[in-house]
Amino acid sequence: MRSWWKTSRTDKSIKELAHWYNPIIQGWISYYGKFYKTGIYGLLERFNMRLVLWVTKKYKGFRGRKARARQWLGRFAKANPNLFAHWRFGIRPLKTI
Prior knowledge:
globular, mainly alpha
């Protein structure tokens, strides 16, 4: 996962990121959900934090404000619960910290 984010990908929209990462995330959920359910939560939370960092780089108003970016992403996830594969299962960024 670390090599995916070498570039900030701020030229992409969040829907394009979802289109790119959903097959991979769905594969993780299918495999680890069967053999190691508790291990997948930390990985998907890390992915959510990478999305928060992406928001801080993409949108100027969130630079240096991770808490606000996480709140915004939490509201966005609540409004679009099917955008990312792991959001469908309830592993969404929290609205409040």
